[in-house]
Amino acid sequence: MEIQSQEDQRGRGLIFIISAPSGTGKTTLVKRVMELLHGLRFSVSYTTRPPRTGEQEGVDYHFISPDAFREMIEKEQFLEWAEVLGHCYGTARVDIEALKSEGVDLILDIDTQGAKKAKEKLDHAVLIFLLPPSIDALEERLKGRGLDSLERIQFRLAHAKRDIEESHWYHHIIVNERIEEAVEKLKALILTERCRKEMNHGKSDSGRLLEKCGKPV
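RESULT FIELD:
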């Protein structure tokens, strides 16, 4: 069994924005990676839609009334928000300094529209797009879930095609053909970004020391 070092177990205040068409397996992927890596936190979004069977308040979403949602908008408490199929979804604002002090990295589950808005406000966010093996495979997964009517599935597939066209401006793309492989890829990606952050931090410290001492370090 792989043992994480103390450094690997600590987050760096990084923001990972993950987008994917509905039915691609994003929820399962994120859950599995969070079980394997310490120092990760999932940002629970807010929604005005009612809970589905098996969904838990504060775990899957914060389920709130339309009035409460509007109040949060007025108070500018959302990083981004959108209306989808008659229901509102929003991501709470992020306190990066608090994340750094806690040694935590944050995972945001946001669609492509919201990711663009978040990217403008979070300069150093890492954007990851999760792809299905094919549209046919995605259709089979959506039908297999048994959650949507055929009409709703066709809507989701059309929306998925538009989302996939947006994937080119993401930093990383992972194809979820086999969940075990996708988990390892996302895990490796997060550890690599942590290492890069640590190295950049080290360079900054060296630069400050060089400036202070006036000689190479």
